[in-house]
Every structure is written in C-alpha cells, then in structure tokens.
TrEMBL record, chain A:
GO molecular function: glutaminyl-tRNA synthase (glutamine-hydrolyzing) activity; transferase activity
Residue intervals passing through the bilayer: none
Cited SUPFAM superfamilies: Amidase signature (AS) enzymes (SSF75304)
Annotated ranges, domain Amidase: 27-447
Protein name: Asp-tRNAAsn/Glu-tRNAGln amidotransferase A subunit
Keyword terms: Transferase
TrEMBL record, chain B:
Protein name per its UniProtKB record: Uncharacterized protein
Species of origin: Candidatus Thermokryptus mobilis
Lineage of producing organism: Bacteria, Pseudomonadati, Candidatus Kryptoniota, Candidatus Thermokryptus
Length: 469, 85
C-alpha cells in the first residue's frame, strides 16, 4: 500500500495496519499532516493544523501499542474536528472573524472521548461562520474563504461542516466530526462524496461545542464509509452529565450483515421530480441495488407539514439568543458573508410567541413523523436535489428550477431522528450525487447496516477525487 | 444549512392556493414599522444596501409567521420541551 492508498484507507484497514505494526501511528500521522499542508488551504478546508499535539499523541499511541496496550480500532488514527469544538489551548474560531483568537482551556466531550480511544487530532477544520445560523447565501461565508469540494475546485464543499467534508473526501484525515442543526452534516457529505451520519438528538454530547440552536444541534461522524461512521459513533456516543440533553443509551457497533429478514424501506414520493436528471438517474440505479436486499415500498407520501418554516423560526430565535451580544454590539458586521452581516437584525425580531408556537407545532409534527417512521426500517431519498453549488453564485441562482420535493432534512432535524448519506454516482461537472436513509430515533445501527449492505454492492464510496492528479 | 428567508417569499406565493390570503399591503406596512425599529436601534451600523437586505429578511419572516399561523394549534398543545424540577 503506497502513501496515497494509506491516506484513503478505511479506519478498519488502518487499524489493521497499525495492529499488525505495518505502519506506526507516527508514520500515519505524518502522511496526513503532509496532505493537510499540501491541500488544506487549496480546499479552504483547514483552520489550524495541530502538528505538535498530533505528533505527541502519535508517539504516545506508538509507545502504548508497542507495549501491547491496544485501545481499539481508533488507536493511532488521525482525525479532524469542525472548528466549533473546544480543544484545550488551541484556537476554536467557530469559522468567524470575531472569534478568531478564541481559546478554551478544556476539551469538548467528543474530543475527550476520541482522545481516550487513542485517536490523534491533526486539524481543526473550516466551517461556515457560526454554522450558518445568520442566513448566508453563497459559499463565501467563512474567514478562511469558501470551502471547495475536491471533486472540482470551482464548486462548494457544502455547509456548514465544509472542511470536515472536503478533508475526509481528499484523504487529509481518516475521519472527521461535523455538526448539524439542519443539514450541516448531510449537505457537505453529499457535495464532497463521503458518508455522513447525523445521530439522534441527545445520542452524542455537545458539551464544548458552539451552540447555534440548543434544541436542534447535533454532532456526528463524517467518514469514507458507513462502517467507519459506526466505529466513530460508538466512540463518541453516550450519556454525559455535562450535557443534560444526552440520553442514557448504549450505542455499540460491530460490523455485521443485515438480519435475515429484509429491511422495509419506503421510497419517498416526489423527491426526484424537480431534481437534476443525473440525481434522478443515480437514485433510480440505487433503488435497483437496494431491491437486492430490501423490501421497497414505492411512492410513499411523506407527512405534509411546514417543516422548513418551523425549523427556520426555531433557528432564528435560538440563534439570535445565542449570539445576542454579537448582534447588539455590531460585531456581527465582521462576519464574511453579506447576508450574515445583517441576518441577526431580523432574527432578533422573532417574538417569544412565534418561537413558542413553532415549538408547539414541532411537537405535533415530531409525533406525526415518529408514527410515520415506525412503519419502516428506513426511508430513502436523494440527499440533495443537485450536485454542489458553484462558488461565486448565490445559492438560489445556482440551479434555477431544481428542487428536492418533501423537506426531509428539516423534518429529520426537527424530530431529532438519525440519517446517513453516502455517494451514489456522479452528476454535472464530475460532482458526486448522494442518497440518504432516515429512520426512527436511535435506529442508527439499522441505518448503518443498510448503508453497509449498499456499499458492499457498490464502489462509489471508494472513488477518489482528482486532487492528486 | 437552513432554509433561506427569501425562500419564504417564493413559498408564500403558494399560500393563496392553501386558502390563506395575505394582505400584501398590510404586511408591507408592518415590515416598514419593524424596519424603523431596526433603523432607530442599529441604523448607524448599517448601509442603505444592508437596510434593504434587512427589510427583505423582515418581509420573509412575516410571511413565515403568517404561514405558521395557518396551522391550527389547540389551547392545550404544549411546546416541544419540558420544564422539570
């Protein structure tokens, strides 16, 4: 295996190389550090390369492994985190100029859990400023500049976990952590051609993470395969007394094949009618693969509720509260995106009654979605109706007439249910398309199993972007 | 990534079909008044172009609120969070 193969290997492959002492954690870390230096800026994917810490952690992992103290699959594996997770003594910028010099003296729980698993932090990864909460309208929305998908540098890597998506796709890290309030793991995963998992709300502690919307924010793995997502999720999930929204649920993952009974998957009606033709074709091809191991129910109507409007009202109210000082002080004008500079002034006008009414509707809508999802092991749809947006063009002008039908991403986030997405082909300009599975709360294992079954029959997740060429 | 405010301007065009009629003139006046508050409080920090963008956002938020009001809530429908001691 040459260095490039190593950079794109799965966690399980890397762990095997480490365990068999075919590669040392220090050697592996150096490979990723080199790639971060070479491609990180080009992709707008990196805020801070944590070289000193990484090499120290790598040497420690090496010593432990050589002494026979092997901690598990993540021991010695280099990773990156979206730069909204606190890392002791290292800048945590939230992607935004006003917080560029912010340093915390503690680690986010997720970071601490990964350290305990023996993983090695190599980079803090770029993100849309303040996780996109202020209403950005084009790709240029971070003090590090626009994130670029490694499949075509003229196109956006998606947001708000932009750097996490691009870094994983380009083999700059073995895996990354992203966050999602409404689409911020799934969108960059789709635009960068990687596998991303949005966990159930409360499964992963958010202690030490920037808050945009307390009732919507979630942290999750962004990887090169569903199996990798399962490995990382099992390391970061779990109750945390520092985050009172976390639930006492033990998530343990072992790669296994699907149960003998075929999973029942609903194909949501109307998701491809206004999608790009390539998205539609790739989705139809994916359904044929799924039919090999799953029972598909076609043309299933998704519950019709104002998903987007309710999510938007909640994010505006909670986001305005979370960043009230920034807005009132006028410091918000230091943000990069033209809409972000002013978004807060309308957000603070959302009334308490509007917010409460949105939260009251949310309860009814969540119950409706729970009831709907309880009929299936998963529902399936394209992750996005288009490929990545071009850089330099406002989002709403990028692909006129293209739309995704039922609002699965806002709905899933509003209800706090999990979803996993993965590449399923290519569309315009050699950009990846993606498919998503969504299921009821705490159904991550089932979703990962379905995704594993899909990826064992396809090789889209193994394709490498042309960045090294 | 969240739904853009301006998207609601487009979405609102579908509202009459849902049986909900928006009095655009009244909404425009309301937007003007809300914008005045922004101008009084923060106007010195904003350019004319930025004030125009704030107005677009306010208009979209008003349409969003009208849309939310069109969905029925009963007196006993509680918000989706709980207070516990």
């Amino acid at each position: 295996m040459n260095e490039k193969d190593v950079a794109f290997a799965s966690i399980r492959q890397l762990a095997d190389l480490i365990k068999r002492k075919k590669i040392s954690p220090v050697e592996l870390t150096k490979i990723y550090l080199e790639r971060l230096k070479k491609y990180g800026e080009k992709l707008g994917a990196v805020v801070t390369i944590t070289e000193e810490l990484a090499l120290r952690q790598a040497r420690q992992a090496e010593r432990e492994i050589m002494a026979g103290k092997y901690r598990g699959l993540l021991h010695g594996i280099p990773f990156g985190v979206k730069d909204l997770l606190a890392t002791k003594g290292i800048p945590t910028t939230w992607g935004a100029e006003p917080y560029r010099n912010q340093i915390f003296d503690y680690n986010a729980t997720v970071v601490e859990k990964l350290y305990n698993a023996g993983a090695i932090l190599v980079a803090k990864l770029a993100m849309v400023e303040l996780a996109g909460g202020m209403g950005y309208d084009d790709a240029d929305a971070s003090f590090t500049g626009p994130g670029r998908t490694p499949w075509n540098l003229n196109y956006w890597s998606g947001g708000s976990s932009s750097g996490s998506g691009a870094a994983v796709a380009a083999g700059l890290v073995a895996f990354a952590i992203g966050s999602e309030t409404s689409g911020s793991i799934l969108t960059p995963s789709a635009f960068c051609g990687i596998t991303g998992l949005r966990p159930t709300y409360g499964l992963v502690s958010r202690f030490g993470a920037m808050a945009l919307s307390w009732t919507l924010d979630k942290l999750g793995p962004m990887c090169r395969s569903a199996d990798d997502c399962g490995i990382v999720l099992s390391a970061i999930a779990g109750y945390d007394p520092k985050d009172e929204t976390t639930i006492k649920f033990s998530f343990e993952y072992n790669r296994k094949t699907l149960p003998r009974k075929k999973p029942k998957i609903a194909v949501i009606k109307g998701t491809t009618e206004k999608a790009q033709p390539e998205v539609r074709k790739n989705f139809e091809d994916s359904l044929r693969v799924l039919a090999e191991f799953a029972e598909l129910e076609y043309e299933v109507e998704f519950p019709d509720h104002p998903w987007g409007a309710v999510v938007s009202a909640i994010v505006d109210a909670e986001g305005a509260s979370a960043f009230y000082d920034l807005i009132l002080s006028g410091e918000i004008s230091k943000l990069r995106n033209k809409r972000d500079k002013v978004g807060g002034y309308s957000m603070i006008q959302v009334t308490a009654v509007e917010y409460l009414n949105a939260m009251r509707l949310r309860k009814k809508m969540r119950k409706a979605l729970e009831e709907f999802l309880s009929r299936y092991d998963a529902i399936v749809a394209p992750t996005r109706a288009s490929v990545a947006y071009p850089i330099g063009v406002d989002f709403d002008k990028a692909y006129p007439g293209v739309g995704g039908g039922p609002a699965l991403i806002p709905a899933g986030n509003l209800a706090g249910v999990p979803a996993i997405c993965m590449p399923n082909g290519f569309g315009q300009n050699n950009l990846p398309t993606s498919i998503q599975f969504m299921g009821k709360a705490l159904s991550e294992k089932t979703l990962i199993q379905i995704a594993n079954a899909y990826q064992s029959r396809t090789d889209w997740h193994l394709k490498r972007p042309p960045i090294d060429d | 990534m969240k739904i853009k405010r301006r998207k609601f301007i487009q979405l609102s065009l579908a509202l009459p079909a849902l049986g909900y009629i928006i009095d655009q003139e009244e909404q425009s006046k309301e937007a003007d008044k809300l914008l005045e508050i922004v101008k009084i409080k923060y106007g010195s920090k904003l350019t004319d172009e930025q004030i125009k963008m704030v107005r677009e956002d306010i208009e979209a938020n008003l349409r969003r609120y009208e849309r939310l009001l069109s969905f029925k809530l009963s007196n006993w429908d509680e918000p989706d969070f709980k207070f516990q001691v």
